[in-house]
Amino acid sequence: MTDLSQIVKAYDVRGVVPAQWDEPLAELFGAAFVEVTAADAIVIGHDMRPSSPGLSDAFARGAAARGADVTQIGLCSTDELYFASGSLGLPGAMFTASHNPAQYNGIKMCRAGAAPVGQDTGLADIRARVERWSDEGAPEPVAEPGTVTQRDVLGDYAAHLRGLVDLSGIRPLKVVVDAGNGMGGHTVPTVFAGLPLELDAMYFELDGSFPNHEANPLDPKNIVDLQARVRETGADLGLAFDGDADRCFVVDENGDPVSPSAITALVAARELAKHPGGTVIHNLITSWSVPEVVRENGGEPVRTRVGHSFIKEEMATTGAIFGGEHSAHYYFRDFWNADTGMLAAMHVLAALGGQQGPLSQLVAQYDRYAASGEINSTVDDQTGRLAAIKTAYQGRDGVTLDELDGLTVTADNWWFNVRASNTEPLLRLNVEARDTATADRIRDEALAIIRG
Question: What is the mean pLDDT of residues 131-151?
Answer without folding.
Answer: 93
